[in-house]
Amino acid sequence: MDEKINIQLSIDTENLLIDGLLTAEAYKTYCFKKNPYLFLFDTNEMLEEPGDLVLLRTHGDNYIAVNPPVLSLMDCFDGETNLESLFEGLPEEGRRFLVSDVTDDNKSEFLTLTKEEFCVDDGFDVFFRLVGKLYRAHLIVPVDIRWEPVEPVFPSPTPRTPVKPCKPVKPGSAVLLLGDTTGTATAGLLYLASYLRRNGVEAYCQWNDTANTPASLREHTRDLLEKFRPRLVGVSMKWFPHMARVFEICGIVKAYDPGVTVVVGGNSASYYYRHIIENPAVDYVVRGDGEKPFLDICLGRENIPNAVYKKEGKIIETPITYVHDEKNTSDIFLSHLDDIFVSKKDIYSVKNFYINTGKGCSMSCFYCAGGVNVQKHSFNREKPFIRGIDEVRKDLETVKKYTSGFMFDFDLPLYDSLDYYKQIWEGIDLSRYFCEFYFWTVPSAAFIQLAAGTFKHVLLSIDMCSLSEPHRLRLAESGLVKPQPTDEEIISFFDICETYPNVEVQVTPILGLPYFSEEDITRGRFFISRLIENYSPFRISWGRLHAQPGADLSESAGRYRMVSYAKGYDDFMQYSRLNMEAETYPDLDSLNYPYIYSEDSELNRKTGQYFMDIGKMINRRRELREKRFIISRSVAPGALHAAADQLVGLLREEGVGPGSIKNSDGDIDAVNVLDAAGAYYHNRPRVRRILDTVITPEKKANVPLLAEDTQLDEKEFDF
Questions:
Q1: pLDDT number for residue 695
Q2: Whole-Å CA distances, 102 to 105, 121, 385, 555, 676
Q3: What is residue 184's predicted lDDT score, i.e. its pLDDT?
Q4: What's the confidence (pLDDT) of residue 416?
Q5: Where are the beta strands (DSSP E) in 440-555?
Q6: Closest Cα partner for 41 from 378, 400, 297?
Q7: How many Cα neighbours within 13 Å face the side chain of 194?
Q8: What is the pairing mode between strands 175-178 and 232-236?
Q9: Bridge partners of 499?
Q10: Which pLDDT value is given to residue 652?
Q11: What is the pLDDT of residue 668?
């Protein structure tokens, strides 16, 4: 038998991204496969008018609701049955397909649905629109093109869990806990609410706030106050950009009922407690860890630790003596999740449920407000600690029934993360869940293997202070940041992750740290290009360097030839007001921050251009991935050479030959004809850009590269 050669083909999916584009006929031979990274919720109690709809979450982090016929249809997308065969084989029953976009707003206690119905009795065009909808929702992916018909098998719909009734609220004696920002609040509120419930306090928590205008914030906060009629309201003030919003919430509470006790806690409240307590709408500030102090306030006890409060016209401060550590946190865990949320949708609205595995940091990165020095000031925490195995396992078991994914934040140095997480996850079936893990350095191959084998889909995020290796290492060697990985360590990490199809990578650099140079711009461009060209699409999450309360760089920027736009409370409060005064409250990517810039204005300009250029590179790769999918086939050399002959002829007709051509992507390597049979060589992925540039889709369609003998061979011939 002749040796087979593996080829790769790109198939066009761009038109599937455009709803209603009438190109159905061209896609009849396309084969799709059900996205293997889907989570099906066991209940639909969080949906408004759910009926028989099933809520799903995809690896694209979107929610979508579908009816049982859509679930059955999705199982028929097997990668081998083309769209025409699927359409022709649709059963007579169950031809009403319902797909709903899922959104959230504060006006409803449930997630709202935007329903779209597809009646395939109206023809293939309607079926094709349904396929496009499923593709855009990340429920299916294109994998192949096949002309031969295949008879699909449609499974029977699986019965789903019935809706559970919501528990009634008992107003009048409640404690209401609110976050400081739109979107998800800190998970610390959930641990606090759970702790209060176990100690006899009727606590409720709003975990997800979508009130993004001043008017909607006032309206929604008053609605919550009217519903629960709390005697005490606690508001998280975790990060400084939201300080003004916290004060606005506190003012709304006092305007509704001056007799309600208002307590503020969190990182920023702890650091700036003397300023926070001066606000007339704030009665208490809890500094540092808050479970016991907050419980004591609720129960009216005396000698409350970690507290700053007003009494008889004076401000009273008590020392921070309640500090979490390995010995005193066995009673800090999640519970009462059926009871503590203000609405049924709250617990389901968060993509990945944060599981607390410890607190504190032993590092002193000079740009960070979470380092060891600030921890000592705000929390009286001398060193980090990790929670007990049993407490963390208890959290996982408690949360499993409510969430589609978990988040773990920063492994701790000086601890064996691999053994710790192996003990946490062992014996708990997490195979249907997503996972995000944020590492302070590059994880080991053994840890990657453990995570990939434990969860359905894993996002591994590695923290680095710069894309330039020399810049990273200079900062680390100067003791200004934590230890940094080399380029080769990062490349090795990417190599390992590439072997696991369910592992996705994210890198989180910081733009504009001190001692950054034009040479670092060149090195950063080269390194990110290397990652883009050689690895599956990955995420990058970065932004400009900004000031943080208590960080050495913010307070001593001049020492590093930098300029900080915030140093003290008034400066940070100014930027927080800008966020609160915006017509629509900014999301995480558009918050107003006080940035830190170099004293060299020309370097600032070049650094800003570098930031935009890297973003364009990443976006271009993402857009290309959305518009093209690569499929593999194995063909006999004779068939490949015949196809190559035709291709070379087409290229020559367009004036392409030895030498080079240019398009919008810049220089493209030469097309080389290596033998008389037309064997074709190129430097991947440039050939696809050549074809897209000089050969029309009609001409490409005539190249017979789709031999049906599909046994793969180790030899590769990328096309």
A1: 47
A2: 10, 26, 39, 44, 57
A3: 81
A4: 72
A5: 457-463, 503-508, 510-511, 539-540, 543-544
A6: 400
A7: 18
A8: parallel
A9: none
A10: 62
A11: 29
Please say if the pLDDT value at position 710 is more than 70.
Answer: no
414 and 306 share one domain: no
Residue 670 domain boundaries: 636-717
Give a yes or no: residue 2 inside a domain. no
- Please say whether the beta carbons of 407 and 392 come within 8 A: no
Instruction: Verify that 288 and 384 share a domain, yes or no.
Output: no
User: Token pair of 616, please?
Assistant: 């364009």
Q: Residue 142: its pLDDT value, please? A: 82
Whether 452 has a pLDDT exceeding 90, the answer reads: yes
- Say what the pLDDT of residue 199 is: 96
Q: pLDDT exceeding 90 applies to what percent of the chain?
A: 56
Residue 429 counted as domain residue: yes
Nearest-10 crossing angle of helices 214-228, 243-256: 50
Domain of 457, CATH number, reads 3.80.30.20
**Per-residue confidence (pLDDT) for residue 371, from 0 to 100:** 87
Do both 710 and 640 map to the same domain? yes
Count of all residues that appear for the chain in the document: 719
Q: Return the amino acid letter for 24.
A: A
Residues 408, 509 within the same domain: yes
How many domains does the chain fold into? 4
The CA-CA-CA angle for residues 138, 186, 546, to 5°, reads 90
The structure tokens listed for 562 are 């930098």
Give the burial string for 672-697 (b: 16+ CB within 10 Å, else e). Answer: ebeeeebbbebeeebbbbbbbebbee
- List 262's β-bridge partners, or say none: 233
Mean pLDDT of 306-334: 94
Sign of CA dihedral 69, 75, 81, 82: positive
Largest Cα–Cα distance in the chain? 98
Cα Rg, the chain, nearest whole Å: 29
Q: Does 326 map to a domain? A: no
* Token reading at 537: 């699409």
